Amino acid sequence: MTVKANTIQDTVAVEDRYQIATYKKMSIVAERGEGVWIYAYDGRKYLDLYGGHAVAATGHSHPHVVQSIKNQSEKLLFYSNLVYSEARARAASKLVSIAPAQLTKVFFCNSGTEANENAMRMARMTTGRENVISFAGGFHGRTADAISATFLGKYRDIGKPNVPGHLQAEFGDIESVSALADETVAAILLEPIQSMAGVRTAAPEFFQSLRRLCDERGIILIFDEVQTGIGRTGEWFFAGSEASDRVVPDIITLAKALGSGIPVGACLVNDKVASHIKENDLGTTFGGGMIAMAATTATLEAVEKDRMLENVRTVSAYLEKRLAEIPDVVSIHGAGFLLGVRFGCKAADIHKGLLERGVITGTSSDPNVLRLLPPLCLKAEEVDLFVDALQAAIDEQV
Ligand SMILES: Cc1ncc(COP(=O)(O)O)c(C=O)c1O
What we know:
Blueprint: H1 8-18, E1 30-34, E2 37-40, E3 45-48, H2 51-54, H3 63-75, H4 86-98, E4 103-109, H5 112-127, E5 131-135, H6 144-148, H7 155-158, E6 166-169, H8 174-178, E7 185-190, H9 204-217, E8 220-224, E9 251-254, E10 265-270, H10 271-274, H11 290-305, H12 308-324, E11 329-335, E12 338-343, H13 347-356, E13 359-360, E14 369-372, H14 380-397
Parallel strand pairs: 3-13, 5-6, 5-7, 7-8, 8-9
Antiparallel strand pairs: 1-2, 2-3, 4-10, 9-10, 11-12, 12-14
Helix pairs in contact: 3-11, 4-11, 12-14, 13-14
The structure holds pyridoxal-5'-phosphate.
Pyridoxal-5'-phosphate binds near residues 140 and 196.
């Protein structure tokens, strides 16, 4: 039996009745979205500085992405990787064309956790070793291997029994990595900006030191760019950017923004890694499906056509300047449109105050850090709206 929800209250009640209670939800019944705005059934509209957890990079329902999905759906919804497809050929070539030059091949899957699972598997196949070093505060997903690499809060406990061979180093501390990086280690896996931990960054030299260590000791370097990838930092990737001291890893993992909301994950790999992967070593039914591929190509085209990378650089500088003018803001960290704003008070209270004023933001595992992950098309006038709401939410606290 399907239950029909006739009112907003019904929708909430029906979802709560039939969905396992695993998410802490905001009391918004979302109806539609456009650009940086979410429109709710009760007539309210919300300025979205969270982007559905960094997914809506091109803005909500970008017309080019919507049209591409529509066009593809009328031709063929899906066929597996056992046939060739123009949609897949276009997405793969487009993605590789914007990647750092060393990363020449892609494997498509469906999510961030799956991208990380496959990346670790490829590192093990390439090196013939098993162990993986990752970092305190990093988040890599909720499937068995990825959650075992997630040394943030309670996640590893949720994932018990953990996959063996996961070792924990300290983010930004090369000595802690060096002490673990022996001949048993296949990969070093890291979020180059630790988002969930409260948008923690490391010095550019750290990435250089990691690259050198991996080269010297035959270890595969994996950047989890599930959040930082596809323009969020104002560059297509953190890898190869100034913030990483131009370091390019052996594998980049992607998801979230890549399909503008259609589930797509990907591993971008270099020739060395690709040469170790043989037929049937990796696979997934849905990865590389036609709708996902149409969404991927259209997402990358939209970012380019609307000059979103330039927009992120300009508007994030303005956002940081406006935030720095607020005395209650203790510090701002991160890059581009992945920003952590530290307060003396609880970020959850600010988050609530902003929501009451029609602004969606994110919290993090650091109780004092509010996270901003807006669509890449956010404009300066919307920053002004946010800053006014933020000031009002802060004033309410004192
Ligand atoms: C950095 C990072 N890696 C991996 C994941 C897992 O992605 P997914 O939820 O698509 O499996 C996330 C999700 O939040 C993430 O932020």
